[in-house]
């Protein structure tokens, strides 16, 4: 993610739409009822705790009055009352902690599952990956950012609820204590009903305004830091995934330089955040220290005027602390709110991007994908739009029948991979019509095969369940591709993409074709990269084992390809149907031409 994209994302942020989107996602989640039940239980526990704190604050007056009178018997009685109140509040605190942590768990469950479900809708993850900066680090946003957002939301929401309830309850206490207070200046009497309440409002209000003024940039600084952290994490993962090639090229120094640049960006963003937090600490810590004496100073006029006893002074001071603490919730949590706001920005922006990748933008039309007659694939007037121009087939009306083997050839740079993605339905921008046979499976084979983690049996069956095929079918598929050495390892759980070489991975992908025996196979240049003996074996398998499977191979012309009965031609016109960069969400980039 570059600086420009991060800045644009921050500039386009709006709290209410983002918050509404997150609430809507959780409301539609299966855990909604559990969330409502937990929230209701928390409200009850917090309300009962507030009542207990009122009783504990009221206990201050008889306890300190007993101390001032040297009344030892009453002192012991009040200690026993304190024990009961403290024990009850302890039970409530433990219950509240359990409910809070459970709420965080359910919030994360609902949000993460919503993001994953929307991300893995057919074709969406691919389109998002090709939609610019937003699709660079989806794992970071669905894992770390979603976890952080739900935890911060629970802590801040519960803290705000608790402060609100305490504010409502203790304002009554504080108002009653200072309701009849009046200042005497010279010969004039100035009545200020609820004097201590207004003092608490003024005290906390000034702290809130100063905190906002000093810390208002923290949201942007947090968002930028998270973006830089995600970039560095992506770089480290990329190096780990390609460490073989890097080591063989002796490219460690170059990769170190790149990671150093990412690290410097992280450190710079973090340094800006540190500066902002330091400046905010002058306000929060300053008011925090003054709070130690502020309640006594505010209540002192009542005490010296003889309106309250020493115990009443402590009661008033305790009530003032509760009220101003509730009013200071914004001040005490400003840095956390900024962190929450930045995380909400990233998660809500990601969720919006997932959904909007399917939106048809006015700047570009789409290829029509329809279900046609069984046993035939029709391609009519196909033009695939990209920033580099239009990729198209020279033949305008094409019908490929079941069992037919067709080779599509094109020069380097004409966009063979783009055609593969368009025929697979992953790249929808352009014009024309593709009719795929109704109810017939098509197996797609990209240039780099995907071998999911798990057993070799699961790799071969993917994406179907392993029990769809009998044991003999797996052994037959491997043997046919001359991979019989892997038959005893069918049930070994391993990273097969690390265990097998590139040629063996490609061959294993064709073993999957033999196992599934699909009606149609679409291949992106794989046959061109295989050794001659492996290639010939695969061509023989299509003839002998899969005579009814229709094959479309996108690659280069070769006189040895007797498998193919027809050749189609891929061409490119750089002047036609150039896809504007903003046409796809987030500045899409077309896949590299091939």
How would you characterize the overall build of this protein?
With 594 residues, the chain is an alpha/beta fold. It has 2 domains: 3-356, ABC transporter type 1, transmembrane domain (ABC transporter transmembrane region fold, Up-down Bundle); 368-583, P-loop containing nucleotide triphosphate hydrolases (Rossmann fold, 3-Layer(aba) Sandwich), CATH 3.40.50. The protein contains 20 helices and 14 strands. The strands form 3 sheets. Strands 3, 4, 5, 6, 7, 8, 9, 12, 13 and 14 form a 10-stranded mixed sheet that branches. The protein has a two-stranded antiparallel ribbon with strand order 1-2. A hairpin with a 2-residue loop joins strand 1 and strand 2. Helix 2 packs across helix 14 (334-356) and helix 6 (138-177) crosses helix 14 (334-356). It is elongated.
Average pLDDT across residues?
Answer: 80
Global outline: elongated
Nearest-angstrom radius of gyration?
Answer: 34 Å
Proportion of helical residues: 55-70%
State the secondary-structure class. alpha/beta
CATH superfamily of the largest domain: ABC transporter type 1, transmembrane domain
Straight-line N-to-C gap: 26 Å
Based on the structure given, which CATH architecture of the largest domain is correct? Up-down Bundle
Q: What is the name of the CATH class of the largest domain?
A: Mainly Alpha
Low-confidence stretches: 1-8, 581-594
CATH topology of the largest domain: ABC transporter transmembrane region fold
- Determine the strand fraction and express it as a percent band: 5-15%
Sheet of most strands: 10 strands, mixed
Number of strands: 14
Number of domains: 2
Treating each run of at least 4 consecutive H or I residues as one helix, how many helices?
20
């Amino acid at each position: 993610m570059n600086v420009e994209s991060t800045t644009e994302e921050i500039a386009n942020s709006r709290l209410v739409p983002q918050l509404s989107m997150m609430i809507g996602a959780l409301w539609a989640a299966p855990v909604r009822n559990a969330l409502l039940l937990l929230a209701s239980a928390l409200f009850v526990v917090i309300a009962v705790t507030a009542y207990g704190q009122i009783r504990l604050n009221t206990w201050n007056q008889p306890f300190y009055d007993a101390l001032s009178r040297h009344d030892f018997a009453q002192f012991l009685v009040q200690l026993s009352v304190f024990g009961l109140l403290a024990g009850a509040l302890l039970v409530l605190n433990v219950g509240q902690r359990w409910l809070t942590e459970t709420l965080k768990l359910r919030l994360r469950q609902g949000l993460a599952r919503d993001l994953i479900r929307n991300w893995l809708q057919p074709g969406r993850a691919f389109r998002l990956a090709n939609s610019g900066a937003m699709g660079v680090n989806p794992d970071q946003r669905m894992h770390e950012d979603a976890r952080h957002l739900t935890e911060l939301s629970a802590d801040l929401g519960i803290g705000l609820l608790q402060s609100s309830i305490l504010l409502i309850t203790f304002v009554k206490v504080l108002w009653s204590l200072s309701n009849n207070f009046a200042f005497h200046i010279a010969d004039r009497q100035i009545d200020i009903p609820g004097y201590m309440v207004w003092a608490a409002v003024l005290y906390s209000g000034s702290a809130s305004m100063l905190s906002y003024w000093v810390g208002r940039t923290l949201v942007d600084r947090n968002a930028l830091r998270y973006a830089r952290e995600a970039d560095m994490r992506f770089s480290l993962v990329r190096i780990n995934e390609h460490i073989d090639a890097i080591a063989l090229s002796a490219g460690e120094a170059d990769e170190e330089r790149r990671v150093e640049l990412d690290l410097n960006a992280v450190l710079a963003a973090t340094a800006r955040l540190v500066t902002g937090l330091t400046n905010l600490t002058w306000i929060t810590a300053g008011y925090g220290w003054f709070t130690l004496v502020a309640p006594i100073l505010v209540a002192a006029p009542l005490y010296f005027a003889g309106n309250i006893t020493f115990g009443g002074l402590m009661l008033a001071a305790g009530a003032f602390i509760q009220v101003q603490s509730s009013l200071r919730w914004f001040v005490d949590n400003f840095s956390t709110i900024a962190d929450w706001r930045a995380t909400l920005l990233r998660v809500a922006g990601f969720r919006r991007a997932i959904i909007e990748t399917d939106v048809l933008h006015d700047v570009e039309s789409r290829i029509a994908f329809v279900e046609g007659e069984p046993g035939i694939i029709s391609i009519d007037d196909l033009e695939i739009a990209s920033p580099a121009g239009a990729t198209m087939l020279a033949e305008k009306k094409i019908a490929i029948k079941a069992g037919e083997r067709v080779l599509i050839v094109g020069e380097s740079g004409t966009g063979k991979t783009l055609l593969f993605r368009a025929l697979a339905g992953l790249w929808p921008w352009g014009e024309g019509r593709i009719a795929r046979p109704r109810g017939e499976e098509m197996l797609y084979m990209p240039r780099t095969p995907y071998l999911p983690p798990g057993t070799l049996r699961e790799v071969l069956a993917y994406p179907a369940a392993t029990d769809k095929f009998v044991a003999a079918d797996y052994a037959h598929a491997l043997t046919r591709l001359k991979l019989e050495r892997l038959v005893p390892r069918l049930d070994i759980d391993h990273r097969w993409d690390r265990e097998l070489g590139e040629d063996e991975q490609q061959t294993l992908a064709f073993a999957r074709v033999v196992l599934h025996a699909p009606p149609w196979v679409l291949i992106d240049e794989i046959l061109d990269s295989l050794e001659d003996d492996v290639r010939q074996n695969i061509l023989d398998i299509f003839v002998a084992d899969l005579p009814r499977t229709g094959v479309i191979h996108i690659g280069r012309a070769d006189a040895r390809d007797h498998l193919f009965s027809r050749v189609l031609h891929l061409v490119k016109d750089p002047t036609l149907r150039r896809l504007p960069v903003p046409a796809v969400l987030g500045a899409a980039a077309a896949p590299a031409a091939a």
